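Milestone 3.1: sequence recovery, worked example.
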């Protein structure tokens, strides 16, 4: 089971720009093992739009999802920088420190910071 969890992409975000993101806990139905993943896109007007896309995809694979919170990511691919900030009105603020650690696994050559700033 853990191998299947590990095969999930830890990060799926837009390649550039400022956009909403959510931190999602994924686990097997009834299982104890879990993995937290980051999903974000400018196409989402609200944070729940991201979850409404992610949840059915994960259910097809036999996983359950829970949104742990949200915020925004400012992704500057030219300068290799990311800033994680803000919150979701519906889901509350994600633990940005956790989000940054997940992002750093994929964007190893980036400078990634976070703050509780709203903008």
């Amino acid at each position: 089971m853990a191998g299947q969890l590990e095969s999930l992409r830890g990060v799926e975000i837009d390649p550039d720009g400022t956009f909403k993101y959510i931190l999602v806990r994924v686990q097997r139905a009834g299982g104890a093992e879990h993995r937290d993943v980051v999903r974000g896109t400018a196409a989402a007007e609200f944070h729940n739009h991201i979850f409404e896309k992610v949840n059915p995809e994960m259910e097809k694979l036999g996983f359950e999802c829970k949104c742990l919170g949200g915020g925004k990511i400012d992704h500057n691919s030219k300068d290799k920088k990311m800033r994680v900030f803000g919150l979701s009105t519906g889901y509350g603020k994600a633990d940005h420190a956790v989000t940054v650690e997940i992002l750093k696994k994929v964007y190893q050559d980036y400078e990634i910071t976070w703050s509780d700033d709203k903008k």
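The domain at 11-115 is CATH 3.50.20.20 (Pyruvoyl-Dependent Histidine Decarboxylase; Chain B). The beta strands are 11-12, 17-28, 34-41, 63-76, 81-85, 111-114.
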